[in-house]
Structures are given as structure tokens and as C-alpha cells.
Fold this protein.
Amino acid sequence: MTQQELQNYIDLKAEAAELRQRLDELKAEKDGLRASQITGMPRASGGSSGGPAAAVATQIVHMEELYLRKLSDVLRTLQRIEEAIRSLPPCERRLIRNRYQEGLSMEDTAHAIGYSLTQAKRIHLRALEHLKEK
């Protein structure tokens, strides 16, 4: 686990939320297509049926698959980061959570965990060393 991966945590959380929102929007769009289809009308036999609506539905399904794959990748990365953080001793874990998951500055992190800035920086370096092993 690198410091860069920790720094990406907040962005990854935001990306996961955006992907979930996009998936919800695609589902609503797909449901809207279904609702707008006329039922009970005779259909032509042979050839491809559905016309433009079917093409749009196919594109929506394809986009859903892409978003689901990306969301799965993002969630796997978040889980790996969270597991690494959970493996730290309590003091280091609190510091890393405040610094990278909550996005606090180092000064605010030091204050939140009740240490001087100098001591918080030492704890931070020790935590990063532990995480490199993960």
C-alpha cells in the first residue's frame, strides 16, 4: 500500500458514488423505454425488430455492463485500502483514517488524535512503513 493509493481514497469514494448514480440513471432510462413500448400490437416476423428503441436499449445495457465493471474495480480497491488500514495499530489507524479517509490536514489530524504535529508526523511515517508491507 502506497501513500498515493491512500491519497486516492476520497476520489475513489466519490467515483463509486458517481458510478452508482449513473447506473440508477441508466436503469430509469431503460425502465422508461420499456414503459413507452406499445404492447399488443402485431410484430413483423423475421428480421430485427424494435428499431431505434432496441438500439438504445442495447446501448444502455452495454453502458450498464461497463459501469458495473468499473464500480467493481473501484470497490475492490477501496476494500483493499480499508483492509490495510484495519491491520494497523489503533493510533496509526486513527491517524490514517483522519488524514486520508476524512481528508483532514496533518495539523487537524494531529489535533484530532491528541498529539503534537511533530509526533503525528512520526506516527504517520511509521504507519506508512507498516502499510508498505501490505
